[in-house]
Amino acid sequence: MSVAERYDQIIKVEPRIKILGILKDGNMDLNVKNSNEDLDDNAAKLSFLQTHHIIEIGKRFSNELGKLEYIAFEYDKLKLFDLPAKEEIITFAITKDVDDEEIVKTISDHVLESERGKASEEEKIYKESSSSDLWQNYMLNYIGFMKEFAISSIQNNERILMSFWKKFNK
To answer: Whole-angstrom distance between the N-terminal and C-terminal Cα of the chain?
Structure first.
């Protein structure tokens, strides 16, 4: 699902969001809502670039302090939130008049609901594919294993022969 689609879903739940960014696999996708406020896209992107590093730093203290729930920055015009989800970080900005706890709960509840829906779809697909032909899945896994084993064996033999010829040529 693209950030624009996620943005449309989240904006229906919480229309006060001005900027939404999703960081997944090291890539940040950003969507800025058309608003009356003068928001510089480059400044917003620069602000979002710090997200991953700050979340990682915060997670380092999780053993002592507990699970990191969210990080909030308050600027003159907006509040910026970083909300870690399972495999992604959701970053969003809202006006300063919004209650922090309320907005974080709304967004995190929405993210959890969409993750549950995605997980149930994946389980359904897995059950359909695994129950349809177990023997075929078993054989495909076995062939994949044998292929990896053969490649590893060839690479190992090649290293042994190269080592032998280097010592022999001395």
So the answer is: 59
Q: Using DSSP, how many helices (H) and how many strands (E) does the chain show?
A: 6, 5
The answer for residues whose C-beta is within 8 angstroms of residue 14's C-beta and 6 or more apart is 94, 103, 106, 107, 110
pTM beyond cutoff 0.85: no
Taking the C-alpha atoms of residue 154 and residue 150, their distance in angstroms, rounded to an integer, is: 6
- The identity of residue 119, as a single letter, is A
Q: How far apart are CA 156 and CA 162, in angstroms?
A: 10
How far is C-alpha 10 from the geometric centre of its chain's CA atoms? 16
Q: Which portions of the chain are predicted below pLDDT 70? A: 1-4, 25-49, 114-133
C-alpha separations of 119 from 33, 86, 124, 125, 157 in Å: 29, 12, 9, 10, 43
- The helix/strand/coil state of 97 is coil
